[in-house]
Amino acid sequence: MGIVSWLRQAIGGSSASVAEQKDPVEQKPDQPPFTVRISMHLNACLEVAGTTTFAKDAVVALADRKQLAERGYFEGPALLQREPENPVDPQAVALFVDGEKVGCLPSYAGKDLPLPAGASEPVRYQLHVLRDQKLLAKAYVWLGEGEPAWQFTAQNPPALTSRERINSSHTENSSMVREALQGAGERAQQFKRGMVDGFHYLELVEPIKQLKREGRHEEALVLCYKAIEGAEGDAGRDAPAPAYTEQAAIIHRKLGQKEEEIAVLKRWLARCPKAHRAGSSIAERLGKLEAK
Length: 292
Fold this sequence. Notes:
about 15% strand
């Protein structure tokens, strides 16, 4: 029985038994039936925790055994097994490949998974690695029945390097914005209010960060103010998103522009409802700045 079947039975409130066990545990006659309780948010495909931290050595050994290339991919069988003696999380569910622990389920999923101590559940495991100066890797487990519907494949791997993660985040933001703008209703109108010069302010997050990393502070400021304008348009009567104001203030500080820093902070406060001004990070920053 697959995990999805477990979930369906759990939702219906029925009891269940483990279909397969790595080391079968004898069921005592006087033991009560195992009742499953789960949360509805458990997905069929989950990212494995610990791939490059506590399970790093096992993942490196797995990559070596499977002779993975520099940019390598592996998919194969694995076993889930609960770890009641785990010193960090007694509800942890570990993932084993070839008998070695290669990670754990995310804590929220491990808590909800209908898997008693001593039992194992077969699953499919997917590993993406980049073997450069250090191991970069991400792994996923498929908890559903039938063939896995992986989000990533050997031809379409997840972002592993810093540059790839930045590009991926920017692409996701842009895709979300374009999809929303093509729709109708209030959501589309809200995204339109956040547009400035053909861009939504959410699309400016990564370009601002990149310009700052390159030390191009004046150019980053230009984008910050466009983002501030977009956030103000999106906010309506609510407080605009403060992150872009904070970024502009930080850059003004780096450039030694105290008056400009004060002005951009006051701009946000002027657009913020009075009830939300006191205690805000913007008000706190402005107070410290004016006290100097």
